[in-house]
């Protein structure tokens, strides 16, 4: 996979950049080779879900700095890397220029990792970016797979255990390759922990797969195709969820995530059950939030946020519509496959009863062709679903998370407003005390004022912080989205191409048979 | 509604003329040539213009046309069936009633739902539905034509007086559709007939040929029925999958028009591709429908007609045997012997006449059937191949500029060569050159 370059450790500043410059040539050759290895898409995708991570990590050079208008260091890079594949070629073929160096892909260089641990911000802005870059660089260093669903236990207490395999060269993990067994509620537990920590500060935390009824059938023990389908669907969804989560540079650092990936035993996350105390609390909170959203009228000073919110609304609607159409396609494709199979059988019977030998043989051949085509249709339906439809539903949920983040910002603003109002009231109270001349109360009032002044400042800071984070997050989200969509759609189209190829083969084989009917 | 869909001469292009021979392999000779040169669709009627070219003396002119409706075709068919003289022939099955209801419903629904979709979607769907309507229309014309051609090609039936009246009489034949009473009578007649058929089929036939034919036809008819139904369903699902592509294409288009970033341009391109795919898929399903489903449906009807012939023959055999028994009884009692003898003679003659012609008819049926299947299966395979190749090439061509570096860097060389081979075999040099230019990096 094409990896990201890891910027020099914090203290080194400029000189190291030039050091990297000399490595420029090497950087490029290795880039080309890694590019070659990254897209496995032309081959029939083995596990489409898994490949997505590999691919989406692949062809694009750093995106993280695109929205950063802060550092001049990256300013030029922002222009050059406009991230359309054909345009990438000029970048690759041109010589490494100083501005471009920091953002071009590099090979995985494990030893640089120790710089990662330096997260203490000396210069706040700069370190943040660099950490992200480092993290981004390391992202390509971590591969997650979810596999081997195994039924554990019996009856209604049974559950599916999935094997989570991590391959990484990041130093924050103790080993480079390890796997653990996790169950679905563990994933939900992880998500709720991450959400509680990061959502309210403005990070877009990828949503976990939804709970659904399908599991009960599996628990009850019916091993039929629909339950295996369900398990497979869930497995793929969990894998995508984890891959998205680790791609997020800040979330990757989180100890909870690390614990989830590494430790062999995990405390059972009971709070994820729908009917538990925590579950009910969640529902109540959600309702309260919905009411709040309607009452808060935010004074939006930043047009960017308004624009983005509108954009996301539109996007949400469009994606939902598209999702519905794609689901219909999946359904019809499955129908087509079933009908083709039925027709194949019928044609075979017809061939049997036909007494003209050549025609009979041709009809049987036709039946065989149709059967093979039916298989093709089934596979195509599979691809339709796993690539296209699931991508869309994932993004619909992600956008809901994004909207949630915007809502949190609104709440933050509300808090700040409230603090300001309270401060005002306290000041008025103090003035009144001054007039009434009650010294002890005055002191208390002054203390309160100080307290609230601090709160107002904090509120302002928080608000600024969340706004900044959201901007960055949205930028990252957009990039990810572009990558994801392009990759998946291209893969999907390639699968369609494969199908056509097969169809051609089958019909070509049949044609001489048909012509041979005397 | 689709008033006056009178497309005139270009309506029946070369392609359609080919439709004529789809299900039957006919030798049309100069003595009598019949075809449907035009058709007009009105509210619930379709008016066919039947055009005849003949050198036979019994017609007043050598070339003439009349306008006929579906009911008049049915009248002609029924007159054949009821005619005792034709008992020994396979009566060409009547064409099915033109059925535009489904299509009309869809058009109506579309009109009602106009407000809820975008302009492009609406125009697209309207075009689609119109194309569907046209396709059904062409099919029904073809089926009526096939019926007439079969009659014209049959050495005995072509001389039928009713047929000549049908062809020539340029006034309305004032044939009305059966009213309720007649339909009820028909229904009872059919019930009696099928009951009788069961009785009659119990009688073992002396002649091996006919015995074999009977078992064969019975089984064949059932299987064709089954295959025809399944093929219909398959074609329909194919069509609905193709329709889905349409909707996906429009949604992608909507996504693409949101703003002008790269991803949106990408979406626009993908939406284009889906549009193209849909057209091809729709054509595939239409061709399948034509070559496979229609073929099976037609032979369903013909095998029914053949079964009817066998039934008539068995009936006459039973009559013959009964007449024999009656004769023996009369001779034994020595009463009404002459009467019994004449009736026995009649039955005997009838039976033998039917048997003779039936044998020939059944052999012809087989030849026709084999030829029709061969033709259609070959054409089906060729069309499927053609469409699959076109679709493959268009998609491959589309994908290539999108990820040129990747393809060339990796196994791209071989993929590029694959495309070249396909293009070369389909013989389109221009396409090949375009593709190469694209592969070499002009986006």
How much helicity do the residues of chain B have? over 70%
Shape call of chain A: elongated
Cα shape of chain B: elongated
Largest sheet of chain B: 3 strands, antiparallel
Cα-atom radius of gyration of chain B: 29 Å
Strand content of chain A: 5-15%
Into which percentage range does the β-strand content of chain B fall? 5-15%
Number of helices of chain A: 15
Order of SSEs of chain A: HHHHHHEEEHHHHHHHHH
Number of extended strands of chain B: 3
The total count of helices of chain B amounts to 12
Characterization of the model:
The complex is a heterodimer of chains A (518) and B (443). Chain A is mostly helical and 518 residues long. In chain A, strands 1-2-3 form a three-stranded antiparallel sheet. In chain A, strand 2 and strand 3 form a beta hairpin. The longest helix of chain A is centred in the last third of the chain and has 80 residues. Chain A is elongated and about 120 Å long. Chain B is mainly alpha-helical. In chain B, strands 1-2-3 form a three-stranded antiparallel sheet. In chain B, helix 3 packs antiparallel against helix 4 and helix 9 packs across helix 11. The N terminus and C terminus of chain B are likely disordered. At the A-B interface, helix 2, helix 5, helix 13, helix 14 and helix 15 of A face helix 7, helix 8, helix 9 and helix 10 of B.
SSE arrangement:
The complex is a heterodimer of chains A (518) and B (443).
Chain A: H1 14-22, H2 24-37, H3 48-57, H4 72-80, H5 85-93, H6 124-139, E1 142-152, E2 159-168, E3 177-183, H7 184-198, H8 214-220, H9 225-247, H10 249-252, H11 255-262, H12 277-295, H13 303-353, H14 357-436, H15 439-515
Helix pairs in contact in A: 3-9, 8-9, 13-14, 14-15
Chain B: H1 14-20, E1 32-41, E2 46-54, E3 63-69, H2 70-82, H3 101-112, H4 119-153, H5 161-168, H6 180-202, H7 208-256, H8 262-333, H9 337-402, H10 404-409, H11 412-426, H12 429-439
Antiparallel strand pairs in B: 1-2, 2-3
Helix pairs in contact in B: 3-4, 6-8, 7-8, 8-9, 9-11, 11-12
